[in-house]
Design brief:
Length: 280
């Protein structure tokens, strides 16, 4: 998402560095970042460039299609291709209308994945583990090294997110206190059987509730939140309500009025450069 400079300015943001727009002086944001008790980021198209469960599904479809020995292969492949087509049509409509909200696709994905061995998605997630944006680990390290509680709030799936964060912990020495997302249930044969009803998050208000719950759990007086699209709008609202810091990474224009900072770049380096002085 490229910056809309006119809308950024009308939302009260001004450019403070290449690719960085802030509300007021950057020093004021840094002062609050330095007092952070909790740091939360979205994952898909935020920490990682793609919708990770979608990319994992592509890999799984290829696996099912190219390996004749997969159990129940033909009906499984037919179901996945049918629902993948429906999801692609929904995504295309969103792109044409500009009304992009990935949470709408979550229910369709549940139907696509039904019956697929969970291990297939875990293997597919491992293929994505090094695709995170540059400076994501370094940014989290700033907070973690100071003892700030860090985690992810996403509308994605635990079977993918768990593997991605576990790799970041092992490879980069990070320690995620939590990841809140939709959880999957498996049948007796280890196959995808749907979402856990009590841990199914399909609308953006769920992110607000999850952020609020984590702030209350950790008694956090200052939260710093990174997000990007309409699914993060309510989470940004909650951060602002708590006088926290809302940072958009390549954010959609609808989020501009809620942001303390908007960062546009090919990766997280401008974000890291923006907030790192708070940790000197």
């Amino acid at each position: 998402m490229n910056p809309d400079e006119k809308l950024l300015q009308s939302a009260g943001l001004s450019q403070s560095a290449p690719g960085v727009w802030t509300r007021g002086a950057a020093e004021n944001i840094l002062e609050r970042v330095a007092r952070a008790d909790i740091f939360v980021s979205d994952l898909d198209e935020c920490m990682f460039p793609a919708i990770t469960q979608g990319e994992a599904a592509r890999s799984v479809i290829h696996r099912v299609a190219s390996r004749p020995g997969v159990p129940n292969r033909v009906p499984l492949l037919f179901n996945m291709l049918f629902h993948a087509g429906a999801i692609l049509i929904q995504q295309r409509i969103q792109e044409i209308t500009g009304d992009i909200q990935n949470s709408r696709l979550i229910r369709s994905f549940e139907n696509l994945a039904r019956g697929v061995p969970i291990s297939y998605f875990e293997d597919a997630a491992d293929e994505l583990r090094d695709t995170y944006f540059d400076s994501v680990p370094e940014t989290f390290s700033l907070f973690m090294n100071r003892g700030v509680r860090c985690g992810v709030i996403s509308l994605g799936l635990d079977i993918v997110i768990r593997r991605l964060l576990s790799h970041l912990e092992t490879a980069k020495g990070l320690n995620f206190e939590f990841f809140d997302c939709t959880h999957v249930r498996a049948d007796s044969k280890g196959r995808f059987a749907g979402y856990l009803p009590e841990k199914t998050y399909t609308e953006n208000d769920a992110k607000r509730r999850l952020l609020s719950a984590r702030c209350e759990m950790y008694k956090a007086g200052m939260c710093v939140v990174v997000g990007h699209d309409r699914d993060d709008l309510k989470m940004f609202e909650e951060a602002r309500r708590r006088s926290g810091v809302a940072i958009g990474f390549r954010p959609v224009p609808e989020n501009y009025p809620l942001l303390d900072a908007a960062v546009f770049g090919s990766d997280w380096r401008p974000l890291f450069e923006l907030i790192s002085p708070a940790f000197v």
